[in-house]
């Protein structure tokens, strides 16, 4: 029952975001079309692909954000030395995905031995970030 409630809440949040994104992107599309009355088919296609990209990024954020903000206990194992990594709090981060970069708040871990950073799941960061 709790799983269904969680699923319903996630679905409702996703629908709200999709509706908001649709309204905003449609307004943007209409404005673009009005300001480009002589646009070629190729220019229209590029604009449509950009709008689709923005829509996908917003929906991905809704689905990924809650998952990424949680921190595993114990910390993940360092991929370099195998030692447990220590939780250092959360950071906002633009994460590359198949549909484009998505900003997430993610747990950050650090290995005291190797000085490696990690933003789970499985994405390494440079130590100077």
Rg over C-alpha atoms, rounded to the nearest angstrom: 20 Å
How many beta-strand segments?
4
Helix share, percent:
40-55%
Structural category is alpha+beta
Overall pLDDT: 80
Question: Could you give the order of the helices and strands?
Answer: HHEEEE
Q: What's the story with the biggest beta sheet?
A: 4 strands, antiparallel
Overall body shape: elongated
The amount of beta strand, in percent, is: 15-25%
How many domain units? Answer: 2
Terminal CA distance: 42 Å
Low-confidence stretches: 123-129
* Cross-sheet strand order for the largest sheet: 1-2-3-4
How many helical stretches? 2
Task: Write up this protein.
The protein has helices at residues 2-35, 41-69, and strands at residues 86-97, 100-110, 117-119, 123-125. The chain is α+β, with helices and mostly antiparallel strands. It has 2 domains: 2-69; 71-129, no CATH class. It has a 4-stranded antiparallel beta sheet. The longest helix has 34 residues, at 2-35. The chain starts with a helix and ends with a strand.
């Amino acid at each position: 029952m709790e799983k269904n409630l969680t699923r319903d809440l996630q679905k409702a949040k996703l629908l709200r975001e999709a509706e908001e994104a649709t309204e905003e992107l449609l307004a943007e599309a209409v404005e673009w079309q009005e300001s480009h009355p002589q646009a070629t088919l190729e220019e229209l296609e590029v604009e449509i692909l950009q709008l689709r990209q923005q829509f996908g990024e917003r929906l991905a954020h809704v689905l990924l954000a809650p998952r990424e903000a949680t921190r595993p206990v114990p910390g993940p194992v360092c991929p370099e030395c195998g030692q447990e990594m220590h939780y250092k709090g959360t950071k906002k981060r633009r994460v590359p995905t198949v549909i484009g970069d998505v900003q997430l708040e993610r747990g950050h871990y650090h290995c005291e031995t190797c000085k490696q950073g990690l933003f789970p799941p499985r994405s390494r960061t440079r130590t100077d970030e």
